[in-house]
Design a protein that fits this description.
mainly alpha
Length: 113
C-alpha cells in the first residue's frame, strides 16, 4: 500500500481498538466497520473511516494520478490539540497575530507610484 494512506489507516485502527464496539461489546474491528454496528462508533472513528475511503479512492483517481493524494496529518487534528501553538490548516497568511500598521494621515507620500 502506498504511504499516503498509512497514517490514516493506523489512526483508524487505533480508534477502532479503543471504541466501545471492540472493547465492551467484543466485536471484531471489521464487523464494527459494517452496518449496523458502524452507527455505534464514535464520530471520530466514522470520520476516519470516511477519510480512509476517500484516500483509497484517490489512489485510483486519474485526476490525482501524478500528484497523488494530499498528505494527511492526523496528530493534532485528531487529538483536538488546537492550542496556542497549533499550525494553520491552509497556506495563507495568518489572520490573527499579524501586525497592522496604523496611520494618522500625516505621513509623506511615497514616490514611484
Amino acid at each position: 500500500m502506498p504511504s499516503s494512506c498509512k497514517d490514516i489507516r493506523a489512526a483508524l485502527a487505533a480508534c477502532l481498538q479503543n471504541s466501545d464496539c471492540v472493547m465492551v461489546n467484543r466485536n471484531l474491528p471489521a464487523d464494527c466497520l459494517r452496518p449496523p454496528l458502524v452507527d455505534t462508533l464514535p464520530i471520530q472513528c466514522q470520520q476516519l473511516k470516511r477519510g480512509y475511503g476517500e484516500c483509497k479512492r484517490g489512489m485510483v483517481d486519474m485526476r490525482k494520478r501524478f500528484r497523488g493524494n494530499q498528505p494527511i496529518a492526523v496528530s493534532q487534528e485528531l487529538e483536538a490539540g488546537a492550542g496556542p501553538g497549533a499550525k494553520q490548516l491552509y497556506g495563507g497568511r495568518p489572520a490573527v497575530g499579524t501586525v497592522v500598521r496604523t496611520t494618522d494621515g500625516r505621513e509623506e507620500p511615497k514616490d514611484g507610484g
